[in-house]
Amino acid sequence: MSSRFPSHQLNNGLYVSGRPEPPKEKAPPMSSTAVPYTGGDIKKSGELGKMFDVDHGSSRPRKSGHLANPPLRTGSMGGGGGGGGGNTNRMSSLSGNVPGASLKKTSSGPLNKHGEPIRKSSGPQGVGLTGLTSASRQNSGPLPPVLPATGLLTSGPILSGPLNSSGGPRKSSGPLDVSGSIKSRSTSMVKNQAVTHLSQDDGHSFFRSFPKLVFWSIVLLFVMGFIAAVFILAAVGNPILLVVVVVLFAIVSLGFAWNACFGRKAVIKFISEYPDAELRTAKDGQFVKVSGVVTCGNVPLESSFQRVPRCVYTSTSLYEYRGWDSKAANSTHRRFTWGLRSMERHVVDFYISDFQSGLRALVKTGYGARVTPYVEESSVIDIDQSNKDMSPQFIRWLAERNLSSDDRVMRLKEGYIKEGSSVSVMGVVQRNDNVLMIVPPPDPIPTGCLWNRCMLPSSLDGVILRCEDSSNHDVIPV
After folding, report:
1. Is 275 inside a domain boundary?
2. For the range 471-478, what are the long-range contacts, defined as Cβ-Cβ under 8 Å and sequence gap of 24 or more?
3. Which residue spans adopt a coiled-coil conformation according to this UniProt entry (predicted)?
4. Which pLDDT score, from 0 to 100, does residue 87 have?
């Protein structure tokens, strides 16, 4: 029975409509000439050396010329199907018609110790085919990084704790302990380079600031006067010169003692009476005094005992009273006086907003800068035998610093400059790329003689910080 539509029969016996497709011509197999790689020495190339008939016992290779049986390059097609149709798997393999040589793919590159080419790949390898030697796939490009099981890159050290899904330690990008211990916070503050650590010598000292040349000249003059007075008294018997020298020596000694005891108060009075400068009109390199409101910089501080946050300067001092048979707080501690046993003072860079012009300047007091603070400290706690167990916070504070808490009469004082406080700063103005800064002066600034207070010449070293009442809680919000 004929039909208007053409049809044909498949190999499996089914009839389908349409004309049969013409048979396609198979593409000729592609072959390439493999370039053998000897690695510098053919006799050490393993199976490759056998292709050139090299005697491994002799260093003389075979003479060049045509090979007796040149290797053939054939392209073999392998496939499998079932029923009437199936998928055809194709693979191109290059083989040499050399006796004893296995069916391998020849490629240029270094060879391993067995004479076989080293497989290099930067990605997943293909699945080997049945009945044929699996050919290695070479891909170019950098190797991907070895990622954790989650595939996320995290920063921070590998901390101990639960394992992840792959059995390795879990990585985290921050500390696990959020609260942290007080000792770790104090250790991090000590190791921070942005924090300037001040010692007891960084405060005001009359004998350290008084000119050394003038001091030793006065001492030499009195020694010579004593020698001359004693000589005249022994030779002539006239004691007038000796009396004059003794009186002058007593007056000068009293003047030095007065300056040593009340020199700090005189310098504070000098700072308060020094006129304030306006930052808007201050010149580069000019020594000025600026009064304004404090703002914290990048590294705020916290007071040691009371834990006052957002500070730019902190000071905690422990004093002990020495009686007749009490222990000394330091090597120079005298009896029936208060002696300094421990002191912690820190300062960092901060900003100050001028009261007059409203400009904001960066005060460079961190990173080891020279600073002389005049910040009043207030008494926090007094400890004696009767109440030494009433303050566990104070006992803990002593234990963290390895200080004994035996039968001593102690007093803890603390001072700080917190954000929003009103302070006075003395230093040198420096303008750098439209950034206004106050830096320490290169040389100490002399105060001169203050005759109305009977004060001898002194000097101001570094940046001067002055805060009248650090414990005032009525600060200006910033």
Report:
1. yes
2. 471/378, 471/415, 472/421, 475/418, 475/419, 475/420, 475/421, 476/293, 476/420, 476/421, 476/422, 477/420, 478/293, 478/295, 478/419, 478/420
3. none
4. 43
Residues paired with residue 17 on neighbouring β-strands, in sequence order: 7
- The pTM assigned to this predicted structure is 0.59
Whether the Cβ atoms of residue 271 and residue 424 lie closer than 8 Å to each other: yes
| Surface-to-core class of residue 126, CB atoms within 10 Å of its CB (0-12 exposed, 13-18 middle, 19+ buried) | exposed
The set of residues, in sequence order, having a beta carbon less than 8 Å from that of 7 and lying 6+ positions away, is 15, 16, 17, 18
Amino acid at 362: L
Q: What six digits make up the tokens of 94? A: 């290059």
pLDDT digits (tens, 9 = 90+) for 43-87: 665 565 566 555 544 444 444 444 444 444 444 443 434 444 444
Taking alpha carbons only, the member of 232, 190, 465, 207 closest to residue 349 is: 465
User: What are phi and psi for residue 162, nearest 5 degrees?
Assistant: -65, 155
CB 409 within 8 A of CB 326: yes
What are the CA-CA distances from residue 83 to residues 9, 234, 370, 412 (Å)? 15, 143, 94, 98
Closest CA to 390 of 399, 381, 398: 381
Range of the domain at 323: 255-467
152 assigned to some structural domain: no
- 218 φ, ψ to 5°? -65, -40
> How many residues would you count in the chain?
478
- Which tokens belong to 466? 């002055």
The rounded distance, in Å, linking the Cα atoms of 317 and 378 is: 10
How many domains is the chain partitioned into structurally? 1
Residue 23 counted as domain residue = no
The mean predicted confidence, pLDDT, of the chain is 74
Q: How far is CA 268 from the centre of its chain?
A: 37
